[in-house]
Design goal:
alpha/beta
Length: 452
């Protein structure tokens, strides 16, 4: 390995947490893009608290090549090491979770150094707390911080926009519901970090409520028609062949944050140094995005899987509030999740055989004038779908690295600095096209009238 004394003055990207479960897959994806003629990633470094493990992750990610990639030492419990790290890079990719435990010092170091920051967090409290704590300073230093740049929550953000843009005026959406279906020829095994974050998130739900109560109320988008009624606990969605139950994911929170910012900035956020043509393109894009009520549901062809999810939710709800209960949940994840999560993560075969489908069912009005005429019942439906490979170890690294490429190659069209959700930052960029070129597709399934 290249010694730290030989490193360049400034890296394009440093990946922090490179030896973690997801981190090593991010490294593998990054190496596909490293030093390509068309890639802005010319200088790459990996970082972690244990250089030996980081070196092993690099060898795993590139077994047939002997790459000279610098390995740096940094620990989230050692702020000076993080400040040194952030002073050496244009962009930091943070793969160290759970973020509520380890993310704050990393975000702080990025903000104070002025480097840009992306992560793959799906933790609403962490994301909203970083916005409250660091947004103003990030604007001042020109540091762009964007969380949820993985499966949480780019497919949801871009998927809502994709469905919304299919509603050609005078048609308008009222509600868009996302149905997430995880599929595999083998057993589906989730990321333990996701499970741990869920347990800690439920345990500290009151902290999130306190944070929101202490913050100014967000702008609410004007959505044509009435708010949708609550449906049954378990839904049979015959249009897409799934049973479904409401999923308490970060996606709905993140999408609402983007729609709120868009309400305050109808033309989107201006780029740091965008040209008149780029400004015109941004404004044209956002003029086609229409707000809608949004929710997320977990879908499965098997009703048994839905009941397994209910049992998992009850277990986390009952036990996470007690320290001993949390210990049990985190010590024996396979038992309490009925096999969906385990500490050692999925095997390579399980990862390669898995995929996802995320359906977006939009209900709205064929003509916005119907709302003003007192017709409160939507008369039109548009179904779109986002599909891709396994969510935690294949799709998430692809999404994160494509976001990174845009930050590095098109920084002038992105906000100068601040803490934002991904949709408002990347919505008007070429991210959707890039994802489609890398195995994550966006399709229109149907447009139809609803029965009166």
């Amino acid at each position: 390995m290249q010694a730290q004394s030989q490193i360049p003055e400034l890296f394009d990207v440093i990946i922090l947490g490179a030896s973690g479960f997801t981190g090593k897959y991010v490294v593998r994806e990054a190496l596909k893009l490293f030093n390509l003629p068309s890639s802005p990633i010319k200088n790459l470094a990996l970082a972690g608290r244990n250089p030996t493990k980081v070196k092993q992750a690099l060898q795993w990610a590139s077994p047939s090549h002997s790459l000279s990639i610098p390995i740096l030492t940094a620990d989230t419990t050692d702020p000076p090491s993080l400040h040194r790290l952030c002073s050496q890079t244009k962009l930091l990719l943070n793969c160290v979770g759970p973020y509520r435990l380890h993310g704050d010092p990393v975000a702080a170091a990025c903000v104070h150094s002025g480097c840009d920051y992306l992560d793959i967090s799906g933790e609403p409290e962490f994301m909203e707390r970083m916005e409250a704590r660091y947004h103003e300073k990030a604007v001042e230093t020109g540091s762009l911080l964007v969380s949820a740049c993985g499966f949480d929550s780019i497919p949801a953000e871009l998927g809502v926009m994709f469905n919304s843009r299919q509603w050609i005026p005078p048609a308008v959406p009222n509600q868009i519901e996302a149905y997430v279906s995880l599929e595999s020829d083998k057993r589906i095994v989730g990321n333990f970090g996701t499970y741990e974050s869920a347990v800690l998130g439920v345990a500290n739900a009151q902290e999130l409520q306190k944070l929101r109560q202490s913050r100014p109320r967000r702008a609410r988008p004007v959505i044509p028609g009435p708010a949708p009624l609550r449906g049954p606990l378990v839904e049979s969605q015959k249009r897409i062949g799934l049973w479904a139950i409401k999923l308490p994911s970060a996606d709905a929170t993140v999408v609402r944050r983007t729609l709120s910012i868009l309400t305050e900035n109808p033309h989107g956020l201006p780029g740091a140094n965008e040209s008149p043509e780029q400004r015109e393109k941004r404004e044209a894009f956002w003029s086609t995005v229409k707000p809608a009520h949004f929710g997320v549901k977990l879908g499965s062809k098997s009703l048994l899987d839905i009941f397994r999810f209910i049992i998992l939710g009850i277990s986390i709800g009952l036990l996470s509030g007690l320290s001993f209960g949390r210990w049990l949940l985190l010590k024996f994840p396979s038992i309490f999740s009925l096999g969906w999560f385990r500490k050692r993560g999925p095997s390579e075969d399980e990862v390669e055989s898995a995929s996802f489908k995320m359906w977006f069912i939009g209900h709205g009005f064929s003509d916005s004038s119907l709302v003003s005429q007192g017709n409160a019942k939507p008369d039109m439906e548009i179904i779109t779908r986002v599909t891709g490979p396994e969510i935690g170890y294949i799709a998430t690294p692809i999404i994160l690295m494509q976001c990174a490429l845009i930050v590095l190659s098109q920084r002038e069209i992105l906000p100068k600095g601040g803490v934002f959700p991904p949709g408002i930052v990347f919505g008007a960029t070429e991210l959707q096209q890039r994802l489609q070129e890398n195995g994550i597709s966006f399709d229109v399934i149907s447009k139809s009238s609803l029965p009166a």
